[in-house]
Amino acid sequence: MRTYDLGHSLAADQHAAQTSIERKFALAVAVGFAFSAAAFWLTLGPRTDIAAAAVTGRFDLKIVQALLLAATAAALVLRLARPGAGTALQTAMLAGVPVLLAIAVIAELSVVPAAQWQANLVGTNWRICLTAIPLLSLPLLMALLLALRHGAPTSRGAAGAAAGLVAGGLAAALYATHCTDDSPLFVATWYSVAIGAVAVLGAVLGRRLLRW
Amino acid sequence: MSQRDAGWADLMRAAKAGDAEAYERLLRQIAAALRPLVRRGLARAGRSGADIEDVVQEVLLAVHLKRHTWDSTRPFAPWVHAIARYKLVDALRRRDGNFDLPIDEFSEKLAAEEESPSASGRDVERHLATLPTGQRAVVHAVAVEGLSIGDTAGRLKMTAGAVRVALHRGLASLAKTLGQD
Fold it and tell me: Do B124 and A20 touch (CB under 8 A)?
């Protein structure tokens, strides 16, 4: 077929997507989060002393960090979904989250006696942490990847990984309301491993599912 | 921002507002600018120039189907450029296995080049044959015979709406099967 003719038929096709990527993505976050939150309430649920915990700095910090991760990764993934869009600022903001976490770890090490470091790091239920965060992130991850198919990511693996960080961050925020280990030492270790696993899964799935 | 980029952005904005003529002009200009770029990309991969038009057509289909991902407040050329690079690398990988095109090798500016009205590819035609009959008839009538939506509807005894739907679906599945080849 002549390119000239193909151009003619493309111009005749007036059907254009009406919904922006941002809107589809926001809808996917809402739907995915509803499923993840429902699964969370039916299985783990928030800790019983949540009212008391909510006024402690450590508890608030881990929630804020999880939400910051999700928000900055979301900003990045929306850029990755548009061909040729710069991502430097969004990448820098995302990189700020582990920096914040490192500062929290240093602060924790300076206020907590060395004898207690290991207990804080190992915590009481790291196994649940490593299981619950990836499982809770699955509905979110699938919804986000489906929404991203509407975009045009030229780096499918990176877009999938960033979607994994959004899903993992939101799942971690949910799980953090259940988890009684609030020390930054615990969060930096186990939450990172759990969310990192979701990011790797997102990258693998993204390479396959985000083809266009 | 270059003058031509501004021109392209204007054409695309007009196209989004429903100006099919501006859109067709834009697609021809993009095709003309892509050819030398694709030719160089294929040459660097040690490939003949016989596939140039197939890659150009694949890029045009992608530009068309993903045009909602262009943010109309941003420059247009980088967007087209990123799509072209993605599709070229994809085409090379599909044919030769693993292939990575160094980014800076493909970073030349999209150059202005003469339009070649007779340039044609083979892949689209081949995949057209795999479409469901209705879609194939509509795409053929509109693309190859150059009929309008209304004339196509009259010829195929379909409503104009059904022709539009079949055309869009046909183009979308063409793009999809081209990418899986």
Answer: no
Do B59 and B127 reside in the same domain of the chain?
A: no
Domain of residue B27, CATH code: 1.10.1740
The DSSP line for B48-81 is -GGGHHHHHHHHHHHHHHTGGGS-TTS-SHHHHH
pLDDT classification of B98: cutoffs 50, 70, 90: low
| Inter-chain CB proximity B143 and A9 less than 8 Å | yes
Residue B168 belongs to domain spanning: 122-181
Kindly determine whether residue A9 and residue B139, on different chains, have CB atoms separated by under 8 Å: yes
Give the pLDDT confidence of A56-79 residue by residue, as tens digits: 999 999 999 999 999 999 999 999
Radius of gyration of chain A (CA): 20
Rounded CA separation B22/B116 (Å): 18
b or e along A80-111 (b: 16 or more beta carbons within 10 Å of the residue's beta carbon)? bbbbbbebeebbeebeebeeebeebbeebeee
User: Which residue, B115, B138, B167, sits at the end of a domain?
Assistant: B115
The count of structural domains within chain B is: 2
Of the three residues B115, B133, B167, the one that is the final residue of a domain is: B115
Complex ipTM value: 0.89
